[in-house]
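User: I'm writing a short methods note and want a consistent example. For PCI domain-containing protein, I'll paste the sequence; you return only the structure tokens, no commentary, since I'll be parsing the reply automatically.
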Amino acid sequence: QDAYRLQLKLFLYEVKQQQLLSGIRSYLKLYSAITITKLAQYMEMDEATLRSILMTYKHKMHAVDSNGKILSSADFDFYINEDVIHVVESKSTKRHGDYFLRQILKFEETIAELDKVQLD
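Assistant:
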């Protein structure tokens, strides 16, 4: 029973963290730069707590592969310079590339179907 309670407590803590991270992610996607003070006001928390949550976000969005290389799973990155959070899109090129590849495949399928049509 104690193991169950501990596991439940840790799970609920993780869910609460993910809720906060989701809110911060939403705000950061809206801005290319925002002050820590302004974001803390939007999130209704003090600046020290916000800094802690930002570092938690950065930690949770990175993983280390088998070669020791650090990989990011976030679609944007950010850094803090003089109390200003600067947001940088990191996966926009991938999104565009995926879109164009899907369109190419779609058009190739359409052309193949048109080639099958017999004209009288």
